[in-house]
């Protein structure tokens, strides 16, 4: 017997859509202890909020996020607004005893994230940060292969997140569509937006990063603000590269940019172990590349595993072998895991605390780039 | 203002799931003239039907498909049962004035399909056969590129549909899960199940096929029946290859099998024109390969187009560039197109009549294989 | 102690170059019982013949091939002229007791090839037909994997040879550069030139073909003759598709065309067995794709084997792992194998007799296409 | 009329073979002003030297490299010995007025390389360092595309060189086969051996590197010496990662390791420009990936250019479109260019002076890794 679980969604932008879709689909495919009910959508513009409610089947809409917090019937608060609003909303939600799903990165800085962690832990509420790529089946499979010890000792972890959508200097900063270019809203550029994903996956796969050394660049120095129309200095990092050392002795190399012509959202990682290696990329997210040195030498090669069979992570819930799922499904898996764990009183990774560690690495990378030297990280 | 449209779904198997998902998702992503309402699910087993209704949000369930037909409130009948039931249900639905979406192939033979076409045309009801792969964005894009004349005169059309799930002689025939191996239920083997998709796409892309010459094989000659437990002769074709001539002078080469180890659902096609060529496959359905001879020679090569940008067919409705959709979305597009056209009183391709043409080609292929000579096709 | 072996090369065209290069390189990389000496080059035009001799280090040149036959010092006659000259030269060479390497196809027809076989067998001379692709390491590896039984029972053999160089109707027929389009010189079009390769490999890999059914097309019906300047009907097949049955019960599907825009020399094959499958293509000839169903299911996928390690066929003789060889090396391997076998008095496959079988399949395919029905093949 | 050019080869190891092959093949395929004559091979072991001379057709062999220098008939000295011998031999050769081709890296350090540059410049002799990958046709094509301005402003240059042959701690250091692991012979590990290639290509493509920041690691801390049998500390870098800034404002990210399981010799680079991007890798060296943002958006994608047509760099000299060449051909091109330029009194890039710049970057990377901070480079 599934219990209804009332969802209050804050934010009707791109992430509001991915999360709403996830709540709707999860119970069609997974056997869940809760049945999500889309109770309230909250967004700044009433007309937009109403249209979103109609489209997605929310029972109501509000324009002030505090009303979501104050609504006793709401069980889960889902935060899909720009980064600068995460802390205030999340802390209020925690204090109100709500479960919380928060979009990534947790906050603009570790300093801002720290009280969020304290708030959810003090309140004892279920909490999750939406590093959704962990739950792409191929990425989850990679974790499984590592945990089974198939790779042996790890030597290298390599990850990139390459985009090309801000090459034109005519792209503005700020506003609804381009707040990610506005340092006040986003906190940082590719580091918080994209490398945070890479770091989250990397530390999940390969353990803590102990020290980093990075370089950043801002190619377009000033952009018009989308709301004010004023040309203003750009405060974010357009590109960031860093190398690092993991606690387990392996080396990391990470790079992100929004100036890699030809790549829309090319998140890639590769892990080299003593016995085997793994590679993956988001542009073909349904495949995992795997090389096993223990194969007979004459038939040894990189395997392209089409992660669609029923024994693959999450895939038993979807279609039949050979038929791929896509980007949106990572959010469905996230909701399903969150609800299953919440019903058992168990945490769902990455928690706020785990996301704080990612934030600390991001902060260290930016500090390192500024100082031109290594930074060690204290968790 | 969208009108509700009541859906009566017949069949709760794999296709019942893909279609139910499509009705639920379509209005979240597309601006539709109708809002589909999941009214009734019909399936043989009451317990299963009830569970399906609960999971997908159907308002009711029945175990006799005639009740769906007789229900005046039902607007659309969606037929997702084995092929041997298509004709009877579709004709009854047409006579009751229902819109009809029918799974492919239209029927087991052209002779069985013919009265279905007559019924829907006589009744003047909206009708569609679910050759869903047409509406994978990359496949729709291929059609667009051909229609724009980018390929020039077409010389070759090549398509395969390769699977490997029936290699073991322990796989039974008949029953819920394996009715596709039972000639009484399916009508034929890979020809009707898989090549029908290839033929539908091919004639959409490249016009009518005028004559065919084929070969079939049944590798496993007898299998246990899933329901009776008796070992019985296998009546279906396990593999079928044919070549053909199109009305436009181009040559076709088609092959399907369920004995191609390593391929789960590898539908591939390639089209070679005077100026350009196109290739696609279902295992990476979000990509289209394109070669244009008019490119500068030193940078000329096959392009791998990641069909995710907003200006690609259907993709403006989904996520952002670089983020792929999957198999299930082809059904969402199908529902969206069907509803939009229905509201305008326009047919949605492939109609029953178009699917009859595909059936005729399938029949001719099988007849040719039996006779060991060419068969011409009369539409 | 290696003995010198005097080579008389007949033909200084494209194949004359590939063979000359092979004789020069073989002893640098292989430990051979003979040291090839480039004795005489024979070609129609004296100036060209002399230039070729200078470039490649031939000791002499002649313009009449009979002088090569009559030269007692010549040990090996290598025939690299258009197909219509193969029979006369080969028979004369055999009668003169020369070893013979002959370019493929053996002749224009099986009828023409038959006395060639008889001549070499009567004379007891070493003989080889240059189906060089067998000795691309990845193709040789495929043979090894099949022979080891890794694939299990074979169900399907699929091969294509796709080119695009004759799409323009301005390409002439006949003459030095385009004799392959002249039916008098070539015997047939893509069937003898390209499918012959596919058939040779297929029967080597998978045993005899018992029956075929084919279709051919000539897209450009007339072309100017390169020598006479006259527009004449085109007598060759521009495209040919056939399916077939092998003696071992497997099915074949073959296609070749020179109208596949975007493919220069795309010879591909794929073999599907009960337990494993293999795929290869000439555009990345240093790789073999391999799928093994017996792999653990969660890491099962097509492997891309980079055939460059020292334990791969022939590769121990070349560079180091990861460093690829190319097209020309298949000819070096052919020469090396031929010389090694000749020293031991052993035949080198494919012999004239084996190439005759390939010729018979080609003839049957063309006859089948003409008659519109199956043809069985008697070897 | 070609003049003979006497070659004195010093070193009969792997590189001695690649260079010898190049001298032999170059005149068969290129129209050269000189005809290379393999005059003398020099190597430490007489028996080996003699065998090498026999195999490759050297007229004589010696075991003391000074005899090559002293031989007045020698025109070109080709240095294919471990790095620690480069300086002494090259300086002596220059002083003797010989043309010099020297294997890469030029020396173990910039300090060691400096007098080599001075020597060749003072002597005015033709000189070249064998960074052969520049002359893989696809890499040369990349240079051409950049120089034509197709990429526009460059933002990123990314290169890796990944191997896996030293993962086992049982691999020794020192000796003939593994001198690359001995810091005394090699000077450094992956930095001088592999990254030097990446840096050479990068500065050729993208101009000078102004500052670097790197990290190195030695995973296996001690290895047995191949000659002494003693276990000794390992002095080389097993892995090296660095990022950098180019003079043109673009950012670089470079990584090399011999611990990347699954990669034999995977040299890769990618260049992202405002309008277009390029990518290449050594495991498929005959292809260049190219993305052009100016393509029509619906057919825009990464192009896989099969660099085999006659209008591609160097390819007009080889076979026909579609037929690939391999690793060894880069050395043939190098010899051909060197001889053509030498005849005209023109330098061939990369000269000793250019290779010194690469050496300075290598030194700076290692110094940076040691110091844990950026190093600027003065050329």
Automatic annotation (TrEMBL), chains A, B, C, D:
User: Domain GFO/IDH/MocA-like oxidoreductase spans what residues?
Assistant: 141-278
Q: Which UniProt keywords apply?
A: Oxidoreductase
SUPFAM superfamilies assigned to the protein according to its UniProt record, in alphabetical order: Glyceraldehyde-3-phosphate dehydrogenase-like, C-terminal domain, NAD(P)-binding Rossmann-fold domains
Which Gene Ontology molecular-function terms are recorded?
Answer: nucleotide binding; oxidoreductase activity
Say yes or no: keyword Oxidoreductase present. Answer: yes
Question: Boundaries of each Gfo/Idh/MocA-like oxidoreductase N-terminal domain copy?
Answer: 5-128
Asked if the keyword Oxidoreductase belongs to this entry, the reply reads yes
InterPro entries named among the record's database cross-references: Gfo/Idh/MocA-like_OxRdtase_N (IPR000683), Gfo/Idh/MocA_oxidrdct_glycsds (IPR050463), GFO_IDH_MocA-like_dom (IPR055170), NAD(P)-bd_dom_sf (IPR036291)
Top-rank taxon? Bacteria
Q: Mind telling me which PANTHER family this protein's record contains? A: BCDNA.GH03377
Name of the protein in question? Gfo/Idh/MocA family oxidoreductase
- What species is this protein from? Anaerobaca lacustris
